[in-house]
Structure formats: C-alpha cells, structure tokens
Design brief:
- The chain has no helices and 15 strands.
- The protein is an all-beta fold and about 180 residues long.
- β3 and β4 form a beta hairpin.
- The protein is globular.
- The termini are far apart.
- About 30% of the residues are buried.
C-alpha cells in the first residue's frame, strides 16, 4: 500500500492520511508520531476513498471528502476516537477539489461546480448545516482558504476566459 493526502493534526503529534490498502481501496488512517504507529480510523466498503483536508482545532475530528462507490461524494467530519462520520453535505459525482476549515472550526468552505461552465465557493456552518454561496458562480472559483484569524475567506477566481488573469480575490467577511 501507500499513503496519500497527509494532513498534520493541530498539535503536530498525529498525521491523518488516506492509505491505499490490500483490497485496492483507501481507508483513513492516523499515524501517531509519539508511538510510531498507525491505526485505521475510517473504512467502509461503500467508500472508495476518504480524502482528508484538515482537523478541527481540538484535534477530535478530521474534515474529509468521502468518495462513494455509487459516485456520490460526502463532505464529512470523521470522529478520530469512534470512527463515525457526520455528513455535512452530500453531492452527486461533482466533488470539490479543496476544502478549507475555518481556524475556529465553525465553517467549512469549498468550491463547487454549479455547471460545466461555472464554479461557486460555498461556505457551510458545521453546527447548523446552513450554507451560503459566497460569490456569484463564474468560470472558476475555487481553492478557498481562510486567513489565520478566520475573519476572511479568500479564493482563486477566474472571472473570464483568460487563465492568466487568475488572482487571489477577497471573497467574504462573515460573522
């Protein structure tokens, strides 16, 4: 097997990653730097691969995309202790390329293909599940990132057909 998508925990003591296993599927594992050992945190037959993107600030959950065998995709939080997954958003075959968790762990942002020709950045409250479309869909809005204090969300935007014009745009100030 091999590891993919490594993401360090907030305290730097663990690393979450997808592991391509002997069943030709991927499971979500956590490697402990203190014990030099890994354990499977999440593995389900209906999930082709879990892709980790970040940890909650307290290190209790891992933000993932769960790509299912039925081609659905879930944005979810996997509990590191129990392995249970709380689905925040279910999507069809379209899957965000990047998820960003706010520094306070209250929001997740992602770019979503609204159609073949437009992508929008969406902000989702982890507590309530409420969603906001951050900007009008354009040719390509993606790769959201929060600033370190969590007051602003930034994303790449290609508002025309010229990819050279991609710039990091201020997107949204939220409560």
């Amino acid at each position: 097997g091999w590891a993919e998508f490594p993401v360090p925990s907030p305290d730097g003591r663990q690393i979450a990653y997808a592991w391509f296993n002997e069943r030709a599927q991927r499971d979500l594992r956590v490697y402990s730097l203190a014990t030099s050992s890994a354990r499977v945190v999440y593995a389900r037959d209906e999930v082709e691969y879990p892709q980790p993107f970040g940890w909650t600030p307290d290190g209790s959950h891992i933000l993932v995309i769960l790509a299912r065998t039925d081609r659905a995709n879930h944005i979810a939080l996997v509990d590191v202790g129990t392995g249970s997954a709380r689905v925040l958003k279910t999507m069809d075959w379209r899957s965000p390329q990047k998820l960003a968790l706010s520094p306070d762990g209250r929001y997740v942002a992602y770019g979503f293909h609204m159609s073949q020709k437009s992508t929008a950045v969406v902000l989702c409250s982890i507590e309530s599940g409420e969603r906001w479309q951050v900007a009008e869909p354009v040719l390509q809005d993606e790769s959201p990132a929060f600033d370190p204090d969590g007051k602003y969300l930034y994303f790449l935007s290609a508002s025309g057909f010229d990819p050279v014009r991609d710039v990091l745009d201020f997107a949204y100030g939220f409560p």
